[in-house]
Known about the structure:
Elements: E1 7-8, H1 41-44, E2 51-56, E3 60-69, E4 72-82, E5 88-89, E6 92-93, H2 96-110, E7 116-121, E8 126-134, H3 139-150, E9 161-171, E10 174-186, H4 187-199, E11 203-209, H5 210-218, E12 232-238, E13 242-249, E14 252-260, H6 264-274, H7 278-287, H8 293-319, E15 328-332, H9 341-349, E16 353-355, E17 363-364, H10 370-376, H11 381-387
Parallel strand pairs: 1-11, 2-7, 4-17, 7-11, 12-15, 15-16
Antiparallel strand pairs: 2-3, 3-4, 5-6, 8-10, 9-10, 12-13, 13-14
Helix pairs in contact: 2-4, 5-11, 6-7, 6-8
Amino acid sequence: xxxxxxxxxxxxxxxxxxxxxxxxxxxxxxxxxxxxxxxxxxxxxxxxxxxxxxxxxxxxxxxxxxxxxxxxxxxxxxxxxxxxxxxxxxxxxxxxxxxxxxxxxxxxxxxxxxxxxxxxxxxxxxxxxxxxxxxxxxxxxxxxxxxxxxxxxxxxxxxxxxxxxxxxxxxxxxxxxxxxxxxxxxxxxxxxxxxxxxxxxxxxxxxxxxxxxxxxxxxxxxxxxxxxxxxxxxxxxxxxxxxxxxxxxxxxxxxxxxxxxxxxxxxxxxxxxxxxxxxxxxxxxxxxxxxxxxxxxxxxxxxxxxxxxxxxxxxxxxxxxxxxxxxxxxxxxxxxxxxxxxxxxxxxxxxxxxxxxxxxxxxxxxxxxxxxxxxxxxxxxxxxxxxxxxxx
Length: 392
């Protein structure tokens, strides 16, 4: 069914590893596609309520609220609240009550009074197809036809799927047909996030795609990079269990890929080597106090693994595109703050490497601690992109 309760933003300038018919197996960017509004235009045609961005990762809920004065943004409220182990697995919510409780704690700790939220699903949970449709259909007829056509492209019962679409333009060499970009996600992906937010005291107003939220946040750091505005940038988010490559060209998402790898591997190694609990190992990683052998025997090996994973992600991109090099690497996620990692990546891969901080140029609210925020900022790319939806 087409979602009718909240705005589902499912596409913009690129659809995840989308293969354009007639162009072989290369991944081709779909350019100049506006944010999908679909049937939700009416919801957001007037000034909307303040939204908090809520990023639900495998280990934590990250909440962020921004305000804007002119072209300047301000961090009004933020919080990072840990999740119980396995409450979220591979970007999917497993224990919705535990996630909802973590959201409620994050809302309380942050001090926000906002009631509406933007969340996101992983790109791997979104299916996209380009389909031809007759010219001249009104929105109601097009919507009905899309629902019928969708059954040919989606490997799930249609009643289990949330859909949205965008008309891209005429079919090449056929003025009687238009290309329509169909995007779909299993309804449970949307509904679980909606339910978790409700349990946390928030109402979902926007369900975005993580890679597009990252693109939104990237606009805040692009001008700080030492490469030109037309640069090809690899933004690599290394989270607790998942690493995500998002390649951007001229600020627009061109390609995204996820693979299982993250900081949990380091936490697990600390646990086993030093006889700690998971919580103790995580705290020791952040605050120190580990034996001297840790730097060389454990952390050094993990850094090597990070670089191998980054190289592998880039090779997948190069193999499926016309490119063989990126101009800059931006590290995001919790692992980005590991001492010495950016310099090591730059040296090994021969590409300028920096750490993401989408909040660097923002002023801070009275209750926001600058030092803590600076430590968390590289892991707040998705939350930042979601919070920016307040200003769409």
